[in-house]
Amino acid sequence: QVQLVESGGGLVQAGGSLRLSCAASGRTVSSYVMGWFRQAPGKEREFVACIPRNGLPTYYADSVKGRFTISRDNAKNTVDLQMNSLKPEDTAVYYCAAGDSRGNPWRVVSTAPDYDYWGQGTQVTVSS
């Protein structure tokens, strides 16, 4: 079992950048495919990005492709999300999640039910 804690959220103006970090404890993140999701008020939780156990290939939602970058540091047991060129529509609570790689170090998944462990979330607010 793994525990996940997100940090790095905050208030930023449109066009700005934030870097979210997800720190894991209990088990190493190298055992899992890792993902970021977000949920805006009144909306369903949606996929943002994921990264497999061995780091490639990464996979992004179309809405963030080219602006966000997911990375992992298995030695530090962290997964980060670098967010650039932020837009007001990026405003949401961002969640880190860990999922079963099913023995495939290249496995990527974009659906929430495929993730077993979730952090508590961190708020990102982008002002116009």
Structural commentary:
- The protein has no helices and eleven strands.
- With about 130 residues, the chain is mainly β.
- Strand 4 and strand 5 form a beta hairpin.
- The chain starts with a strand and ends with a strand.
- The mean pLDDT is about 95.
Show the helix and strand layout:
Layout: E1 3-7, E2 10-13, E3 18-25, E4 32-39, E5 46-51, E6 59-60, E7 68-73, E8 78-83, E9 92-100, E10 115-118, E11 122-127
Parallel strand pairs: 2-11
Antiparallel strand pairs: 1-3, 3-8, 4-5, 4-9, 5-6, 7-8, 9-10, 9-11
Strand tally = 11
Terminal residue distance: 40 Å
Structural class: mainly beta
Radius of gyration: 14 Å
Largest sheet: 7 strands, mixed
* H-E string: EEEEEEEEEEE
Report the helical percentage.
under 10%
Q: Which whole number gives the mean pLDDT?
A: 95
Helix tally?
0
User: Oligomeric status of the shown chains?
Assistant: single chain
The low-confidence runs, each spanning 5 or more residues with pLDDT under 50, are none
Global shape? globular
